[in-house]
């Protein structure tokens, strides 16, 4: 259930699955560069219909350990940007995740966004040795090879914030890092959006979590993922029972606003073919044919304005709201590489860490950078009292609370705009100041 909550929360469209465990290089892109240290690039021109505005390009880089990391760029071109921001997606998501900051705001501020598939997601190779340190190192190498400059910003979303916490312990003091071949890089600022809480943090008070049902779910899921992965995979892939039915529009897991987002966002009902087709009918969409998805036939559900673009590449099919039914998802989870990548991600996030975030000292003692937490007051995946405790324990973190927000803050354009302005310009919008009793 907990894995489902974290994963379903960020699926406006089905992210491409993790590639199989393989060291073979990916198919070549449109690049003549022969150096593996440089990113291969496949740039796409902006579309006149406005839906591709801000999509600069999509490509991949080769990391020091030989893995490939896929990324995409949005916003203004890097060479004219004032701010470079890396966004770290959550569990079960990808570089195609939603971050609905208005394009005019990104143009006005001069924001260049880089979104990437974390290890084992989308088109990025799995990392059998995934850890907090390796996640931060991937971000370091990405920033270095894309030449984002000496300072860049990081925005983490949901479970994608355990790499962000790790960045806070590594990137501010890059000169002390053992990776000698990386340029000198510093964090210019960090925003953690609805960050998941690891109930194993040593300094997290027991009386704060003793009645939290999520703690029991997290502990059960962690033990199952670690010691009985076969049972978990069977439950997710068996066809006799709908293992996801408890999540479908369950108010215990989603706030009212979250449910509105899920209701109005095509593709979220990935675990139920029936509800998926129902949603398509409600939105007056059409099933226009079949598409090929890594060798599997799937239905493309599109509205008229997306029809022309949903023709060949998976990238455009995803922009065109590709839908994969429950059986396809089950088939993908049966692939060992896909399931193992998800399992390692969950274990890294909720297992034992090599540092206690609640004991961190301010990594920016001269206020040269800032760290933010953005939390929905009505978030039922990560409760606000835990985030308030974190912000009290770490007063150097700037805490923002969205009064009617749930876990899906990145689907709110006003909130995304506020996240960027607070991180990049230092604004403190009164609307999102917590109303403490």
Automatic annotation (TrEMBL):
Query: According to the UniProt record, where is the region Disordered?
Result: 1-54
GO MF assignments:
hydrolase activity
Q: Which InterPro entries match?
A: AB_hydrolase_1, AB_hydrolase_fold
Q: List compositional bias (Pro residues) regions by residue number.
A: 16-29
Tell me where in this chain the AB hydrolase-1 domain is found. Answer: 85-412
Please note every region of biased composition (Low complexity): 30-48
PANTHER family, sorted: ALPHA_BETA-HYDROLASES SUPERFAMILY PROTEIN, HYDROLASE, ALPHA/BETA FOLD FAMILY PROTEIN, EXPRESSED-RELATED
Q: What is this protein called?
A: AB hydrolase-1 domain-containing protein
> Origin organism of this chain?
Rhododendron simsii (Sims's rhododendron)
